Amino acid sequence: MLLKAYAVVTARLQEMKDPETADRGDSPVSTAVIVALLAAAAVAVATAITAAANGWAARIPR
After folding, report:
1. Can you give the C-alpha Rg of the chain in angstroms?
2. What is the distance between the alpha carbons of residues 35 and 41, in angstroms, rounded to a whole number?
């Protein structure tokens, strides 16, 4: 039983290492676009939070 499991795992590892069937993943361009969109969203959220905090602070009496 242990030998069969070893054989199955070994065969699967060899299959995964095969350059013909290897997954190359996403392209760098799509990853860069996603990162840029996330950064733009973060800037927009930070700007909205800053504007809300400034408006709230302006209402505090001196």
Report:
1. 26
2. 10
